[in-house]
Amino acid sequence: MSERLRIENLYKVFGKYPSDALRMLRDGGTKDFVFAKLGQVVGLNDVSLTVPGGVMYMVMGLSGSGKSTLARCINRLNEPSAGRVLLDGEAVLALDEKALREVRRTRMSMVFQHFALLPNKRVIDNVEFGLKLRGIPPAQRRRRAEELLSLVGLGRWGHHMPHELSGGMRQRVGLARALATDADILIMDEPFSGLDPLIRTEMQDELLRLQRTFNKTILFITHDFQEALKLGSRIAIMSEGRIVREGTPQSIVLEPGSDYVAAFTREIDRGRLFDARSVMKAPAVLWRGPAGTVVGGDGGGFLLDACERVVAGLAGREISLLRETGELSARRGSYVCVPEAAKLVEVARSYRADHTVGVIDDAGRLVGVIGAEQILARIAHLPASGAKS
Ligand SMILES: Nc1ncnc2c1ncn2[C@@H]1O[C@H](COP(=O)(O)OP(=O)(O)OP(=O)(O)O)[C@@H](O)[C@H]1O
User: Fold this and answer.
1) Which of 123, 129, 291, 324 is most enclosed, with most CB atoms within 10 A?
2) Dihedral angle at the C-alpha atoms of 373, 378, 381, 383, nearest 10 degrees?
3) What is the ipTM of this complex?
């Protein structure tokens, strides 16, 4: 994945002469310290991050942690006090006004809270709006808008006014409008906050679906950790203008690194966050013979062919028999395998006592095994022996 957006050592101090504040911050001073000494508010304190192309990158933190300031500094709605913003390697802070306007219009667009629609324009005109500003010819932009409306399930609503639609439908129009712009980097500042929970879930699913279709690069701001976990490929967690933890959702939950981050992870549903790949153990070889190779452990195993594909399953007692007598007793069809991406909750559902769950890759090869110990350990958040993180 190529890098699209890179932020390097970005600072934002709200105040006329930020140089003293910057010096204090670079010397290790905190936001509170700067405010106490100078009365200036620190929005960002040495923020660096990299957003790869085609991913949804989440910026998460409590109110006042600097999320919106970061979003606004990236496209210079707020002028950063120091640091660099690179869009496809180009320095955004060096752009003159005209070039900046062009970048905002065509390459990096900002989606504000609630996707507010223009109330006196029809739904289709709302979706077309950004394209019109870009000077796309009428027939072409109409086609694109119609396409997008049907993609969000509102193909027949183009000629209605926004007030004739339900809240959820209006949100979908807003999402279609955001995606209609050809800018392939979208900065979304809490677009779903304040929505009722059902509509919010529906919108999150819709965004994930559309993201897969359009492969946009999205920097998504949220204060909701669950939302960050659900949508994000990577998450940056902010506190007091700094990034205090950055990583994949699974790595952050496994190793929060501080009490501040750990507090967000406590209530999350681990069964739906972790996948088979992240809990499986490497299969140990127990036996080799003309019939194939047996891998697994005391809880059960698998007989594999020469291509490492599962031929048959062995229950725990059959593994004991093999160990004691060297006698192979494996039953064809008597095993459970899941794909690497299967969620832990699905693995737990397929688990049978005295059997090990196999994990297979796209080519059908056995790449790992999961016993009850791994499932329970990850759900209860204990380190499991041999499990990958
Ligand atoms: N225009 C401004 N002038 C002065 N201080 C500001 C300004 N905008 C933001 N701040 C301050 O910068 C800090 C970061 O604010 P920001 O809005 O980025 O936080 P946030 O994480 O987006 O919060 P929220 O979730 O409440 O929107 C806060 O201390 C805020 O008071």
Assistant:
1) 123
2) 60
3) 0.97
